[in-house]
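Sequence in, structure out.
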Amino acid sequence: MTEDEADDEEETVAAGQLSPERYSEMSAAEDLILTVTKGGSGKLSSSHDYPVRGRGGMGVKAISPGPRGGRIIASFPVTTSDQIMLATSTGQSIRVPVDQISFRSRSAGGVKVFNVGAEEEVVSVARVAEQGEDE
């Protein structure tokens, strides 16, 4: 065995382990999906958790329906540096940084993003563009 082969063998990573370079490369390629329900719950999940379905497929569960969740109002890709704006049926709105929302698996329930009142629900969610993005 030559010195080059010995060096390559020492640098190999154990099965099931990622090198730090490969981990950072994969993290940069990962897209985050934000999902928000009418009850004000939301979560971030990896786009890699959503399998590709063919035409006529039944789809996949995006969030676990729970008593506090309700139906999905919005689901779209975001980055951790983004912010979102939520609006309710009574006209209240709130701006929330995406990095403050928990990362969960695709089928898990969400966490409270916005405390809605008893007679109101989230009706709209939008990504807020950064100031430097328009230029």
